[in-house]
Amino acid sequence: MKVKKSITLYLRYASVCVRSAMEYKLSFLLMIVGRFLIAFTEFVAIKFLFSGLEEIKGYSYGDILLCFSVIQMSFTLAELFGNGFKAFSGMVKSGEFDRMLLRPCSPILQIIGTRFEIGRTGPMITAIITLCIGVRHSQVVWSTATAVTLLLMLIGGTLLFIGLFMLGASFCFFTIEDTSIINVLTYGAKSHGKYPIDIYGKGIMRFCTYIIPYTLIQYYPLQYLLGKTTRWIVGLYPLGIVVFLAICYGIWCAGVRNYKSCGS
User: Fold this and answer.
1) Nearest to residue 165, comparing CAs of 210, 209, 115?
2) What is the C-alpha to C-alpha distance for residues 75 and 40, in angstroms, rounded to an integer?
3) Where are the beta strands (DSSP E) in the chain?
4) What is the pTM of this model?
5) At what angle do helices 61-86 and 121-137 cross, to 10 degrees?
6) pLDDT for 34-85, tens place per residue?
């Protein structure tokens, strides 16, 4: 019953955010178009790159597009549902978070609900287009197993970025300001994640496996999709992101327990 009430409340929050954005329809439309064009330029860059290349370290044009679309879609979904964590520093400084703690409702639900960014659907259009092209031109032999793997990559990627947003918000309990390192781990991953992690070398591979587990939602399941490994368990690696998300939530809870009001 509690879960049902939380979902209902979240939908109400989201509905208010959507109605607010739609109050200025032209501004909303221009925002969607602008964000679509920004994301689309990344697709164009890949297209130009492969105009003179047939493959990059064994990955074809379609393979790269598949990889790019997964990261783009995961990041967009994370921003859509978890953008409140990115604005958390302002909530702390303004005292808004203090009010959230006084309400009989989960602070996390309030944070993500009050910052539902429907405008993030612009990059989603690009991600869907590139995913369709990538599916068509990649080396994947599609089956139920590979389709489930792709779905898990998208879900795992979304949870990974939401976890990173939550981690960045947790730092605000100790520093007040958000930290640039999280931007490196989120926007940097979005930018470099358009290509399989292994093309950057073993050092980056280790970091993206044991520190911030990007490889669990990108490199390893991609190997299974492309038939570079027959180990079906690799296709389930994105489920490991649940552990990372639990760690981020634990750090968040520690921050809340030690929080002292600093709002104005």
Assistant:
1) 115
2) 15
3) 55-56, 59-60
4) 0.89
5) 160
6) 888 888 888 888 888 888 778 888 888 888 888 888 998 899 888 888 888 8
